[in-house]
């Protein structure tokens, strides 16, 4: 089972004068909502998580949804033996989270994992569904905390691009 989650940082709060209704894509993706994220295999009781406090969590959710689609470009889908790669790079460091799909499975690794530690492996369909659920749940949480965010056109576009499955 896959669990994707986040926590917001108290060390890096959003600027108090922020107008969330009018925040542009750059601000939404890179300047606001800092914290930490994790992907967990609840069955194996293992996770890949950040512990930096400055990861833009909305950007992570957005990038994760993009990556799941990017590694699904082979028309043979689950029947494809070709390896498809993508990664999330964390801009304030050199660390990356790496996604590799082969057949219907996606291996997830991170640069900060211990040497020899095996990748987390999830079904592509499960990863797609959970990434989109995470995105929508995160937007709902953030909209509850920040007045006007739910009325931001960039958020509407994002939700339309990655609807729940």
Q: What ranges have pLDDT less than 50 throughout 5 or more consecutive residues?
A: none
> How many angstroms separate the termini?
17 Å
Which quaternary structure do these chains form?
A: single chain
Question: Which of globular, elongated, flat, extended, rod-shaped describes the shape?
Answer: globular
Give a count of the beta strands, DSSP E runs of length 2 or more: 8
List keywords for this structure.
165 residues; alpha+beta; four-stranded antiparallel sheet; 4 helices; 27% strand; globular
Any chance you could write out the topology, listing elements then pairs?
Blueprint: E1 2-8, H1 25-31, E2 34-41, E3 46-49, E4 55-56, H2 57-70, E5 84-89, E6 96-102, E7 105-110, E8 120-123, H3 124-145, H4 153-161
Antiparallel strand pairs: 1-2, 2-3, 2-4, 5-6, 6-7, 7-8
Helix pairs in contact: 2-3
Word description of this protein:
This protein is an alpha+beta fold and 165 residues long. The protein has one domain. The chain is built from 4 helices and 8 strands; from the N terminus they run βαβββαββββαα. It has helices spanning 25-31, 57-70, 124-145, 153-161, and strands spanning 2-8, 34-41, 46-49, 55-56, 84-89, 96-102, 105-110, 120-123. Strands 1, 2, 3 and 4 form a 4-stranded antiparallel β-sheet that branches. A 4-stranded antiparallel β-sheet has the order 5-6-7-8. A hairpin with a 6-residue loop joins strand 5 and strand 6 (96-102). Helix 2 (57-70) packs antiparallel against helix 3. It starts with a strand and ends with a helix.
């Amino acid at each position: 089972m896959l669990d994707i989650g986040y926590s917001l940082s108290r060390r890096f709060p959003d600027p108090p004068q922020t107008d969330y209704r009018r925040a542009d894509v750059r601000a939404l993706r890179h300047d606001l909502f800092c914290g930490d994220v994790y992907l967990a295999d609840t069955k194996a009781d293992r996770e890949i998580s950040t512990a930096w406090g400055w990861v833009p969590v909305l950007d992570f959710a957005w990038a994760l949804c993009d990556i799941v689609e990017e590694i699904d470009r082979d028309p043979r889908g689950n029947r494809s033996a070709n390896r498809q790669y993508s990664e999330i790079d964390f801009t304030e460091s050199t660390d990356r989270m790496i996604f590799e799909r082969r057949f219907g499975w996606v291996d997830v690794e991170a640069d900060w994992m211990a040497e020899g530690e095996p990748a987390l492996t999830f079904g592509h369909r499960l990863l797609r569904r959970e990434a989109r659920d995470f995105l929508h749940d995160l937007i709902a949480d953030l909209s509850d905390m920040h007045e006007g965010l739910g009325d931001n056109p960039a958020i509407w576009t994002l939700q339309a691009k990655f609807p729940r499955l």
